């Protein structure tokens, strides 16, 4: 589960091609980080995988199935939005339950899954609070909880920590990495922050203007950057 292949995928907005033909393989259970400067196409690529944007050409395969034209709800993936996407008038419990209510799961199953997610995210004591009564980090955990209960084949994060202050960001990074260890589910994480990429990733995908400059582990990119852009961006001494 959570194996994603992009085959000659392109994306244009009007006449402007923001993603030239791109191939990428994401393996089961990997923590993959898309990194690159603002406007390089990270969000677009993630949204193509999620199905929130249609590909202009090419194919997206998820777990052996052609998912190119499937709507987001049929792809088995969960996009984690920034915490401000929570419903302010609903309790944490109801926020986490929301996707399960939409899917029509029975109450007992919902309750069990909410409790398991809350435990994994240290939110057990906060289930009856409203988002406004939580810290930024706790709110972000609720947003992740809402994704967990769907038991997705992969989690897709788009700069989930960019609203948090620096200290909190470091803590949340560790929490997301711990969660990845616990769940062993594929995670794709978009950031423009090199430190985040280098500390979190199994595999880093470096993008520039919609083109993959290099794919590799943090050590590979550091010790053997393919070009000056990668070296400069990653902060490699070469
Ligand atoms: P990143 O997430 O790396 O900052 P984006 O994927 O948001 O970059 O954007 C990549 C490029 O595509 C940018 O030039 C951006 O202006 C353009 N773009 C993104 N979404 C749209 C859209 N809906 N319509 C037109 N252009 C878009
Ligand atoms: Mg973006």
- Continuous helix count: 8
Q: What is the mean pLDDT?
A: 94
Task: Tell me the strand order in the biggest sheet.
Answer: 6-7-8-3-9-10
Beta-strand share of residues? 25-35%
What hetero molecules are in the model?
Answer: adenosine-5'-diphosphate, magnesium ion
Write a brief structural summary.
The chain has 238 residues and is an alpha/beta fold. Helices cover 36% and strands 26% of the residues. It has helices at 42-50, 92-102, 107-120, 136-148, 166-183, 194-200, 218-223, 228-234, and strands at 4-13, 16-26, 31-35, 57-62, 65-66, 77-80, 154-158, 186-191, 203-208, 211-216.
List its traits:
single chain, 238 residues, alpha/beta, 4-stranded antiparallel sheet, 8 helices, 10 strands, 36% helix, 26% strand, globular, binds adenosine-5'-diphosphate, binds magnesium ion, ATP-binding
Q: Can you walk through the features of this model?
A:
With 238 residues, the chain is α/β, with parallel strands linked by helices. Helices cover 36% and strands 26% of the residues. The chain contains 8 helices and 10 strands. The strands form 2 sheets. A 6-stranded mixed beta sheet has the order 6-7-8-3-9-10, sandwiched between helices. A 4-stranded antiparallel beta sheet has the order 2-1-4-5, covered by helices on one side. Helix 2 (92-102) runs parallel beside helix 4. The model has no long low-confidence stretch (mean pLDDT 94). Belongs to the ABC transporter superfamily. Keywords: ATP-binding, Nucleotide-binding, Transport.
């Amino acid at each position: 589960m959570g194996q994603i292949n992009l085959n000659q995928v392109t994306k244009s907005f009007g006449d402007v091609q923001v993603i030239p033909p791109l191939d990428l393989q994401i393996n089961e259970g990997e923590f993959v980080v898309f990194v690159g400067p603002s406007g390089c196409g990270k969000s677009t690529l993630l949204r193509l995988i999620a199905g929130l944007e249609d590909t202009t050409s090419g194919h997206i395969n998820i777990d052996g199935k052609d998912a190119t034209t499937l709507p987001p709800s049929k792809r088995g993936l969960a996009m984690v939005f920034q915490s401000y996407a929570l419903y302010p008038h609903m309790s944490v419990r109801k926020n986490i339950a929301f996707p399960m209510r939409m899917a029509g799961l029975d109450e007992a199953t919902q309750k069990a899954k909410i409790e398991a997610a809350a435990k994994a995210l240290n939110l057990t004591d906060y289930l009856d609070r409203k988002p406004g009564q939580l810290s930024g980090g706790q709110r972000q955990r609720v947003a992740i909880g809402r994704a967990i209960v769907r038991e997705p084949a992969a989690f897709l994060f788009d700069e989930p920590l960019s609203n948090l202050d620096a200290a909190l960001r470091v803590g949340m990074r560790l929490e997301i990495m711990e969660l990845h260890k616990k769940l062993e589910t594929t995670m794709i994480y978009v950031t423009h922050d090199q430190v985040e990429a280098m500390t979190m990733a199994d595999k880093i995908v470096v993008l520039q203007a919609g083109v993959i400059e290099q794919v590799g582990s943090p050590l590979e990119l550091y010790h053997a950057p393919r070009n000056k852009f990668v070296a400069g961006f990653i902060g490699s001494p070469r």
